[in-house]
Amino acid sequence: MESRVLLRTFCLIFGLGAVWGLGVDPSLQIDVLTELELGESTTGVRQVPGLHNGTKAFLFQDTPRSIKASTATAEQFFQKLRNKHEFTILVTLKQTHLNSGVILSIHHLDHRYLELESSGHRNEVRLHYRSGSHRPHTEVFPYILADDKWHKLSLAISASHLILHIDCNKIYERVVEKPSTDLPLGTTFWLGQRNNAHGYFKGIMQDVQLLVMPQGFIAQCPDLNRTCPTCNDFHGLVQKIMELQDILAKTSAKLSRAEQRMNRLDQCYCERTCTMKGTTYREFESWIDGCKNCTCLNGTIQCETLICPNPDCPLKSALAYVDGKCCKECKSICQFQGRTYFEGERNTVYSSSGVCVLYECKDQTMKLVENSGCPALDCPESHQITLSHSCCKVCKGYDFCSERRNCMENSVCRNLNDRAVCSCRDGFRALREDNAYCEDIDECAEGRHYCRENTMCVNTPGSFMCICKTGYIRIDDYSCTEHDECITNQHNCDENALCFNTVGGHNCVCKPGYTGNGTTSFSQRMSAARAVSQTLARLTPSAMTSPRLAWTR
């Protein structure tokens, strides 16, 4: 009962939705007479007037002949036909009275995979074929075809369903063993005969075609009713429903197991942590990194520029930078010869006789530092430099940075003539006046970049980079131009869709006779099949959560 309701629903939807034009897709058509290139030089046949003047007609004479497709042509035929379960044989013919002959034959050695024969002696049409079990079969249809009159014949096969039309009238409809089209290499194609010596057809043939499509008889008789789906369609639909039911059952089981795991996870507390320079910090924990105040939030480190306090220092102290810290702190000072020195700073004083005396600020008093002697220099006196914090001279080019370690992140030490200073790396700016701490300059946010049209500026540590917008390709480091994805075949359009280039991208439009979003196209017949799946979803409660049926040709 359910199958009859399903089939009735399927037929109704196809009656409303499956409307094809009368044209046939060339990729689904085998025009036998055209491909065989019959002509006046072909022995045993000659061109004669046909039932109509639209195509050529040929008289197959009662003389020795060999109308056989070449190996290359036959393989082109079989590439379209091989492993297909829906196809139609079409022919317009006028067979000589009482002639028994083969209309067409596809066979390999002694195995007839598909042979259509008309017997004028027994007044019957015969179909010889091999089934999927590789057994030979013959279907006999009593009918007088060899009467020296014009007839239109079509034999449509859809899986195990067979329909014979003659002169646009349905003569026979049967359920048979499913024909096999698993054609091996070396299979031959004959027209008007079984081989060189047997099954000669006598008469005229016109419009001999093989259509690899369901209900191909419409191409011969456009007024015939084809509202109902084919047997192969129905079998495919049933198979898809069974697959969806299996997918639904497996998905439901997976969801159930996932819910159980989530319920167990809800009972756990998993704290997220942050790691910076080898140190792990807990959620909401804050710390100071150089001149940045950082916090661990949801497993992510967020840092802001540190705002330094400005405390009031006690007597004989003042604010000064301390090694390893960003902000100034109160530090003891010394007053000496009208200048202020911080704790640990040194200064030289030279007497009138040129003797150097070294003082150091210690415990708020400038104290004399004992002279322990100076190392010998290996440079001439003209290249020797006098320093303000040491009585020992040095040679030009001395590496003062080797004595200094207070240039921090993104800052480098540079040697001057008589001292070392800190300098920010390129792309960074100083966070304090001695350049010991520096922060990255966001060139993108401040408009200090060179990115041109069709690009996006992305900040990087110490610099920036220009990224091409979607649909554009790079010219140089700063410029991009439009990219035609259609010409370079770098689009995602379906094979049955057309690609149209647009500014910054492309559009996919289905070819005539197809429907879809352009990246996935369906024939109009397949579109109706999708409508079936939607109707079934409304009829079957269990299908309400099932995925949409995926139809392929």
UniProtKB/TrEMBL annotation:
Coiled-coil spans are 241-268
Q: EGF-like domain: which residues? A: 397-439, 440-481, 482-520
Q: Give one GO molecular function term.
A: heparin binding
Q: Which GO terms describe its cellular component?
A: cytoplasm; extracellular space
Q: Name the PROSITE patterns for this protein.
A: ASX_HYDROXYL, EGF_2, EGF_3, VWFC_1, VWFC_2
Keyword check for Transcription regulation, yes or no: no
Going by the UniProt record, its keywords in alphabetical order are:
Calcium, Coiled coil, Disulfide bond, EGF-like domain, Glycoprotein, Repeat, Signal
What protein is this chain from?
Protein kinase C-binding protein NELL2
Q: Which organism is it from?
A: Pan paniscus
**UniProt gene name:** NELL2
